[in-house]
């Protein structure tokens, strides 16, 4: 068995297999450490925005989270610790470039020319691993350091420097307050103002007992479901969220002019609703300027906006998010030579976000339409881990060679999903949730509860079970 990726997804699968008694699996990871996005996003202030009790595996609770919303170093340390038991199953520096099914098995090819055989292949390559840098003319002329928040250059000392930050999404909302006290000046370029809610963060006093952790987990899951319900239910629910965000702005931004500029122009839920107590205070700081005029170009000494003004800067930081990954390995060839990219034709889709007809024994983790706008992605990932283990168990118990989702089942699932998404909050919005042609390939349209129910057991009737490859 081969699992590709050692982020929360791949490690979750490996740990679940290990807990179920399976030992014959290998995790292939192209980087030199575990953690996925939590290894790569080391920007100042990086933290999760769902409570830590829910942003950790249910089977490996951490009663010692130092904060209610853990910071990146704590999340990474947790993942390293939690995955120690499968550490010897992980091959680092293994960049998978292709996988091909033939003769009843997968052959997984690495960039260095080597290959690995597998009966079952799990692709857990993440959705948010490719930093997105906008095409703005003149960037190459800029004389200072330029980097993306997901590849933070810690060698650049920001003390006393003028920093230009492009973007006001989830990462910028975290790192701008963290760098503002040390920078001489921070100029933040905003295209779309986010809806920001207060973050009920707190430093933990003492470790909670496991039972308290379980209760906390359930409570935070319910709160996440409630937020998701508000965002996905219709205009009334979204109005409640927008109202709460507006009240937060009124309290935190007394200055009317600034308040007008941070007022979102998109519906609540179009993009991820953000949580922060220090974003607005940072924007109010005397050394911070929020610029809403569109960017025209980057110059040698700063950023020029369309009104002709040049905003001088010594360092340029992209807080511009990610190009959503393709949900699977670079090149996947299934039964009868079917090419996954061609099958998808620009619209990634999979039954329950995991299984694709024509691709036996292939499971995608955090695959198409399994991202969430209001709850912990780990809820979805864990459901997928359980599903993969159930499939592997079935193969092992029956001696069957492969499972492959039936085309009619996958098509019905997809059609129903499209219907629901078409009437949902993300239709008609412009965000990373949608592909260029407008398809919503990232998000799950309902509550996680529904997904948990639908993936609770492996429905054999949904699959073709073959005795031989
Ligand atoms: C800054 C940031 C903050 C976030 N905060 C939250 C949050 O608060 N709550 C929440 O629910 N979600 C959050 N997310 C979403 C997050 O992506 C998921 O929660 C989760 O961490 C995804 O885990 P993953 O294993 O699927 O993907 P990743 O963490 O991206 O891991 C994928 C791994 O696969 C490896 N890989 C990729 N391609 C290959 C290949 N070809 N060969 C070998 N290895 C490969 C990568 O190197 C990486 O290690 C956040 C994301 C980011 C970027």
Automatic annotation (TrEMBL):
Gene3D superfamilies: FAD/NAD(P)-binding domain
Pfam families according to UniProt: Pyr_redox_3
Record-given protein name: NAD(P)/FAD-dependent oxidoreductase
Gene source species: Saccharothrix mutabilis subsp. mutabilis
